[in-house]
Amino acid sequence: MNHSPPHLNQPPGQSDWRIWLSIVFLGIGAFTIVTTELAPIGLLSAIAQDIGRSESAIGLTVTLYAWIGAFSALLAAIALGRIPRKPLLIGLMLCLALSNGAAMTADGFGLLLAARACGAVAHGLFWAVIAASAAQIAPPRHVGLAMSIVFGGVSAASVLGVPLATLIGQESNWRIAFGAVGALSLLTALGMLAVLPRLEQNQVKDTRAALGSVLRRMDLCSIYVATAFAVTAHFAAFTFIEPFLREAPGMQATMVIALLFGFGTSGLAANFLTGIFIDRYLRALLLLALALMTLSLFALGIWGTQISVAGVGAMLILWGASISTIFVGFQTWILRTAGAAAMPASAVYVAIFNAAIGSGAMIGAWVQSHSGFAAVMMVGGLGGAASILVVTALGSHTSIPQSELQP
Question: Where would you say this protein principally sits, based on its record (predicted)?
């Protein structure tokens, strides 16, 4: 079985600075697209008041986005394998800009959902190709570092994107927040046009057969199951983190933003550390991160916001750091295990990831409506524990990546 990174079509003649600048811009694209996806989380109350719907209903804009992203990722594996990567990535960022502009001008719940749905299609296609593209650009021995940079955009979206969107929504209007993300999407597309190298399209002739082959591989499917548990757990809780924090006695709006900023900052710092160690200790880092996330969610579920603000902040810091490592770890594991099947394996991973986001948001909404926000955190903790069990079992049934065996 081939566990080597997918680098068969690595762009020739690229200088080191151009290689890493290209990967950084892929990370900026990840920042933009994740900010678009998660912006409603910090704006639930404002959007609900303006549109005239409940917070749970507005939470569906996250759920719908995720489910459509899951289906479009699978579409990418079948239909987009032979399209050149650079124009594809640029075009998807332009689609995202249009989606955010439409959301900004939506005057009703239906139009808002439609705008989000259009962005979700671009989202799934983008994530289906970005990891394989970064691995194609990066030196083979530094695929894990490249993944940490790209997924650093996810953490940065939590550090800056979601809190800034929340701040803009509170200080002016939630529509302005979507407009700002749309403008960033346009600027990112222009940056990609300038710095991305020419990337060869997938050389797999029968993409449907390749996709079927991936789905029959038990090593990949086991990683997919562990990912599904972890991501569902995270988003069941994180989708409702803003109203959960607002329930705390004496909690001010500015403190909510500060806590979300702390969550994201810890994730960004964890991305840096993950990039240093992941190419050698992938599975150990994953288990540690899953344990910390599970501990944090159980603590928030048991004590809720009755503990001090500092205590809540400490749990959010552990949670933010751990989920960042989890995102990078599972994606890197998939790429290493898939070998030459990186594109279809990544597409399936993105589909499962986004389906888990949608499932998590839906489960969180149901639990919140019946049992409250603390119960949502407990459900998240249970999902994290399930993922730990699967990853632990993988130790005896799935080969460890070769870099983890090096001295």
Answer: membrane
Nearest to 178 by CA among 98, 102, 99, 104: 104
Helices 109-137/309-338 angle, 10° precision: 60
DSSP assignments along 103-127, one per residue:
HHH--SHHHHHHHHHHHHHHHHHHH
The two structure tokens encoding residue 404: 């983890």
Residues 6 or more apart in contact with residue 174 via CB below 8 angstroms: 43, 46, 47, 50, 168
* C-alpha torsion angle, residues 281, 282, 283, 287 (rounded to 10): 90
**Residue 381 contacts residue 294 (beta carbons within 8 Å):** yes
Answer whether residue 333 shows pLDDT above 60: yes
User: Which residue, 34, 6, 16, is CA-closest to 267?
Assistant: 34
Contact of 180 with 168, CB cutoff 8 Å: yes
Could you tell me the CA-to-CA distances from 289 to 36, 239, 244, 295, 385 in Å, in that order?
Answer: 25, 20, 23, 10, 11
For 42-51, what is each residue's pLDDT tens digit?
787 788 888 8
**CA–CA gap between residue 82 and residue 200 (Å, rounded):** 8
Q: What letter would DSSP give residue 295?
A: H
77 falls in which pLDDT band (50, 70, 90)? low
Is 90 exceeded by the pLDDT of residue 226? yes
In the chain, count of helices (H) and strands (E)?
Answer: 16, 0
Structural domains in the chain, sorted by start: 16-400 (1.20.1250.20)
Residues near 10 by Cβ (< 8 Å), separated by ≥ 6?
Answer: 136, 137, 140
Cα 33 from Cα 93, distance rounded (Å):
8
Question: What are the angstrom distances between the C-alpha of 378 and each of 138, 251, 263, 294, 371?
Answer: 39, 22, 18, 9, 11
Q: Which residues contact 25 (CB under 8 A, 6 or more apart)?
A: 188, 191, 192, 195, 196
Cβ neighbors of 20 (< 8 A, separation 6 or more) are 149
